[in-house]
Design a protein that fits this description.
This protein is an alpha/beta fold and 332 residues long. It is 37% helix and 18% strand. The longest helix has 17 residues, at 40-56. The model is unreliable at 1-17 (pLDDT under 50).
Length: 332
Amino acid sequence: MTKPGKSAATWNKAVSMQKITEEIIGAKSIGITGHIRPDGDCVGSTLGMYLYLKKVCPADVEIEVILENPPQIFDCIKGFDEIRPYPRRQPYDVFIVIDTSADRIGNSEPGLKKAHKTINIDHHISNPGSCEINYIDPDASSASELVYRLIDEDKIDTDIATAIYIGIAHDTGVMQYSNTSPDTLRIMAKLIEYGFDFPALIDKTFHEKTYVQNQVLGRALTESILFMEGKCIVSKMSLDMMHFYGITSKDMDGIVNQLRYTKGVEVSIFMYELEPMKWKISLRSCGLVNVAKVAEFFGGGGHVRASGCNMVGSFHDVVNNLSAQIALQIYV
């Protein structure tokens, strides 16, 4: 793994608005990647960067986006059908990791290891900076907002604006989460001036669900459990349940957020089995609990109000272990 260079704090303080084009001068090949199980911000930020670099770089520069199984709902973003599942074999001159630290890029790891220059752009508070050049800002709403800051605004077109808009919209819950700042809203206002049909994009990529997805959501809500005096709520999806409905992890997007809307709840937990007794955990907070600290204790990370990790054990063992860490913050 590429060793970190400048710390995030040093990078932000010294060159927080440095344009990305200054870091890729002379590059003939550029790889761009994000995290495993890419979400809207991951897809929007990587494709936004891809479309921008395709526009400003010389025609002979090879530029590729590498993501594992991006959700098909984002095929409305230009360049989606050009995403590769694996990096090429030859070393990239520059490799850009967006919306994650370098330890969560899955298939893209060989591309990072061989690259001559590595750049990390992220907004997760748990990311200390994992490349030679790091632009980490936990105060940003999304990685897509950081991409907007790093590119030349004069070069933005409708396609780039669409990608960045979708990314910001998804990581802010369509501007309803607390990570939405006045700057975020100003950026979104500038983006919709490019004239794309943003209500249709939100319906397609954020609200629309299949019948099976609605069934699964209904079951998760029905079988949820309140605990810790009603301050926490948890629901799960076992492998047997996933096989019964014929679903994948993508079909369960949004369940943890819906659980969070329960009156009186401070922390919502949704977990599904990756394999027997191994769970993917999603945590959401209303503000009282820093769920990033909880996730980090179990080897994960993320944001103060939205984080995740993997855990091993029975459902009850996992909930008990999470409860112990959450209690340290609730009962103080």
